């Protein structure tokens, strides 16, 4: 029973194997891998190529789409010329993955002020990379709420004055209130 | 970032415009010099870091020197107060994954940030530091991490908790000390903190079943806020359910109510997680399944593809074990056949194929035919496999299913797809006698135009076995001979063998086959010519090998009774001499092999790619070694050599393991010794064996090892006499004796004078299984029936309380040391009874078969009924003796 136990513990925390943002030709805009399943650069490129080819002809514009191959579940969504992907092992809860992907897409939308296309994404690559960094840490889901993610990234922007949706402001106020409480309690 | 990295005014129309157009590593590394400016331009620095990250992201790599330079330059940026720049610095440090001595450089800066007033700094500094740190540094920052776990700011707490999850892999003893803080964090009001805390707490306690059970008990009562945390709780609950037994009186499952309540949760991910957990419960009843199936059925008609996919995938799995429970969903499922998402459509089809009844087969096949043309090969394979099992379920429908298979066989497709179809046809031919003639005919048609050599040869082989037994074998000859004319050498050679089989088994065809075979004597390929010559001579009458027709056929077409790998090693070791190679000297024992099929549970090695062969055996090399020692030459034929048994702990001064060599009247222990101390040379190494607890054994010879230098293994032997043919058992204690001499490490020269010394080794046992060779049989039932009940002995035994049925089964297999047949060593998880088929050769070369039926009751009392058949009543009794004493 011993080893079986260990296997389950591995599965017990939902985990993401990679987050990919490709352009309409399958080229990288930004990618992040959290797994040793693809040890080399060429293995990673091969995976991106096949995931891109397998999903290219599908219509993933209105709803998050899903496919399964080579023992992985991939959820994906296309916005303009950008293809968003989140990959996990084939045992993962599909709806959890979809929430990660949705968080990623929507946060990018907020950060790029709805101008979601390759050109803008590259011009704001720092925001995209920070965004991925705020969603998953070493395979473990950090945050899936788009407003929170975008809020965390935006707080770091160089000029620090990028306005976001109303919710973010409320959130910012909430954090401010917590700061206050903390210093009062000390 | 507000400002683009490159001016873009005049590039507007260019589709391929990119701010990184023409970017070059060398230039960017030059630019990185701005990091060293006394007056830092934060925006400029950020841009350069972004460029560096872009390069890394595109797969560019930095040399060690470049990475170090960038790293040191980046550390300078901690001087800047700009928050955005700091964030990029964090990202860059993580990407560079600095070495241990580089980590020290940033440690103090990061520790300062960890205690900063800015929460964003704190959270990120924790994540960066934990990512790059090693164990020693961790103890320094442990105090801060513990505080951070219970920090008011959820981002800081989450950062510390997630870092804890990662660190638990490398520094478990440190992270385990944080239990109290983590437990407090589980109660956090922030959804994600609760999720991360629960994940960490469970990982800390995962080896303590009781603690996990308590955790689940308390949390299932309370309110977990975050949907993600709720999903975790469902997983942990399933785990607790899996490990606890059902309440026998009421038939209630602990925590089932909790799972069922989760089906009414507001978050879809939680509903689905719970439904999936219920369907995966071992021994789930249909009453328990119903509510889960109902919510999954609702998901089937959702507008979201992910929901439909998740539901149909789960139902597909349920259909394998509980097809009836899924039939209610069939109407929703049928509408999914036309789903835009082909993965969903395939899953729907295969589920329908599993749950469909006989009357719906024809309708389904019509729908599938339209569907097959526009899906990928991998989906087609899934469909083919589902159709195969459907056909085995409804043999009367074989005609329409076989027609379907043959029609898709004619269409375009890759190797794996074609192989799946051919495998399915082969299985149908084997299992449904009526399907045989039409199936063979489809295969003949297929090889007329088959681009895969492997499939052609496999089909030809199969035709040779099955064709001669049909009502009109002559009609296959044309297809086979066409291969001889049209194909490559490999296919031609196997076509020649197939022709020969028809000639050997169908007398009326013999003269015509001979004409065809004679034509093959002029083939351009030597293998083809050789085969034709062999067959013509052997079947042609004046056989050299056997007297009778039967012997000839056995020689030509019979199966090899030795594992191929063993034959290969024996042939490699054979040195050409006067003595011809004798196949009877090839060991028959199948070495235990790692479970190659574990990856695909439930997939039996059926179809053409029939049985697997074991790995190379070490037996031959042992035999050679032992024959070279005159003292052991008179012991006769070596019956068996055990796997090495370690007699020392790992990493001790002297490493010793022993191999037990079993002869009819002797046992030889081969002690493999290794000296791991460079400053020592051992001489005259012997093993002093105390056999006082092994009464039937008496020592007859001992062969010391003259010298044992550092790191160059050698062997010492001790031989015992024992009663002939008797499976004598006993326990031996071992003491390693030797003379030790100091070695000067500088010159490598040993002292003249040595000191006698000894070293205690662990005990060694000779057990009954040592007298049993693992030799499998391909068809257990035939072997069992052929052996007959003359020397059968049946008895029943109680095994007391065991951990599980599987544990009892594997214990019994180990005690007997026999080969399990037909995969009966695998016990289904919820089985209450199990039958295990074993075969082997007992000392004295007596074939033994055993059939053991196990049963387990509520309090885990296991009983077994052992039936043994062999060629010798004494041996059958001896096997029972082993069990009775084991």
Automatic annotation (TrEMBL), chain A:
Q: Which terms in the GO cellular component ontology are assigned?
A: COPI vesicle coat; Golgi membrane
Q: Where in the cell is it found?
A: Cytoplasm; Golgi apparatus membrane; Cytoplasmic vesicle, COPI-coated vesicle membrane
Is Transcription regulation found in the keyword set?
A: no
Q: Which InterPro entries match?
A: AP_mu_sigma_su, Coatomer_zeta, Longin-like_dom_sf
Pfam families annotated for this entry? Clat_adaptor_s
User: What membrane topology was assigned to this protein in its record?
Assistant: Peripheral membrane protein
Q: Which Gene3D superfamilies match?
A: 3.30.450.60
The UniProt entry's GO biological process terms, in alphabetical order, are: intra-Golgi vesicle-mediated transport; intracellular protein transport; retrograde vesicle-mediated transport, Golgi to endoplasmic reticulum
Please list the residue ranges annotated as the AP complex mu/sigma subunit domain.
16-154
Superkingdom: Eukaryota
Q: Does the keyword Membrane apply?
A: yes
Give the UniProt keywords, A-Z: Cytoplasm, Cytoplasmic vesicle, ER-Golgi transport, Golgi apparatus, Membrane, Protein transport, Transport
Write out the similarity annotation.
Belongs to the adaptor complexes small subunit family.
Protein function: The coatomer is a cytosolic protein complex that binds to dilysine motifs and reversibly associates with Golgi non-clathrin-coated vesicles, which further mediate biosynthetic protein transport from the ER, via the Golgi up to the trans Golgi network. Coatomer complex is required for budding from Golgi membranes, and is essential for the retrograde Golgi-to-ER transport of dilysine-tagged proteins. The zeta subunit may be involved in regulating the coat assembly and, hence, the rate of biosynthetic protein transport due to its association-dissociation properties with the coatomer complex.
What is this protein's name?
A: Coatomer subunit zeta
Q: Which organism is it from?
A: Phoenix dactylifera (Date palm)
Q: What is the lineage of its organism?
A: Eukaryota, Viridiplantae, Streptophyta, Embryophyta, Tracheophyta
What is the name of the gene encoding this protein?
LOC103717592
UniProtKB/TrEMBL annotation, chain B:
Compartments in which it is found: Cytoplasm; Golgi apparatus membrane; Cytoplasmic vesicle, COPI-coated vesicle membrane
Q: Which residues form the Coatomer subunit gamma C-terminal domain?
A: 769-883
Sorted UniProt keywords: Cytoplasm, Cytoplasmic vesicle, ER-Golgi transport, Golgi apparatus, Membrane, Protein transport, Repeat, Transport
Q: Where the protein is mainly located, per its record?
A: cytoplasm
Q: Which domain of life is it from?
A: Eukaryota
What is a GO molecular function of this protein?
Answer: structural molecule activity
Q: SUPFAM superfamilies, from UniProt? A: ARM repeat (SSF48371), Clathrin adaptor appendage domain (SSF49348), Subdomain of clathrin and coatomer appendage domain (SSF55711)
The processes (GO biological process) annotated in the record are: endoplasmic reticulum to Golgi vesicle-mediated transport; intra-Golgi vesicle-mediated transport; intracellular protein transport; protein secretion
The chain positions of domain Clathrin/coatomer adaptor adaptin-like N-terminal read 26-539
Pfam (any one): COP-gamma_platf
Q: How does it sit in the membrane?
A: Peripheral membrane protein
Region annotation (Disordered) maps to 578-616
Compositional bias ranges of the Basic and acidic residues kind: 588-600
Q: Name one GO cellular component term.
A: COPI vesicle coat
Enumerate composition-biased segments (Low complexity): 603-616
Residue span(s) of domain Coatomer gamma subunit appendage Ig-like subdomain: 621-766
Please give the family membership noted in the entry.
Belongs to the COPG family.
Quaternary assembly? Oligomeric complex that consists of at least the alpha, beta, beta', gamma, delta, epsilon and zeta subunits.
Please explain the role this protein plays, according to its UniProt record: The coatomer is a cytosolic protein complex that binds to dilysine motifs and reversibly associates with Golgi non-clathrin-coated vesicles, which further mediate biosynthetic protein transport from the ER, via the Golgi up to the trans Golgi network. Coatomer complex is required for budding from Golgi membranes, and is essential for the retrograde Golgi-to-ER transport of dilysine-tagged proteins.
Under which name does UniProt file this protein?
A: Coatomer subunit gamma
